[in-house]
């Protein structure tokens, strides 16, 4: 455990930051899960709506450094690919 006053303060700040970042990471996962649920239910319109809501959140978390920018791009790309495939299946 920290002994000096400055080390104690840093420990408190680190814990506060950790819990805030965990909350933001959880929010991103929830938005992604909403898109995945809509895709699994084969509901194209709901999937598109959930995707358009998720993209700015994913980008914001990548900008803040909560998730890596490549991970954000990968999530967006894969979700969009699934939605396109769902649209093509519905059209066929």
UniProtKB/TrEMBL annotation:
Q: Which keywords has UniProt assigned to this entry?
A: Ribonucleoprotein, Ribosomal protein, RNA-binding, rRNA-binding
This protein's record includes keyword RNA-binding: yes
Region feature Disordered, mapped onto this chain: 1-23
GO biological process, any: translation
GO cellular component: a single term: small ribosomal subunit
| Record family assignment | Belongs to the bacterial ribosomal protein bS20 family.
Q: Which PANTHER family match?
A: 30S RIBOSOMAL PROTEIN S20, SMALL RIBOSOMAL SUBUNIT PROTEIN BS20C
> Can you name this protein?
Small ribosomal subunit protein bS20
Q: What is the lineage of its organism?
A: Bacteria, Pseudomonadati, Pseudomonadota, Gammaproteobacteria, Pseudomonadales
């Amino acid at each position: 455990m920290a002994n000096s006053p400055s080390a104690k303060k840093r420990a408190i700040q680190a814990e506060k930051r950790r819990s805030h970042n965990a909350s933001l990471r959880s929010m991103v996962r929830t938005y992604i899960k909403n898109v995945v649920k809509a895709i699994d239910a084969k509901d194209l319109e709901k999937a598109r709506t959930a995707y358009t809501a998720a993209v700015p959140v994913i980008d914001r978390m990548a900008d803040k450094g909560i998730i890596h920018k490549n991970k954000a791009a990968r999530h967006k790309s894969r979700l969009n690919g699934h939605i396109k495939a769902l649209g093509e299946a519905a059209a066929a």
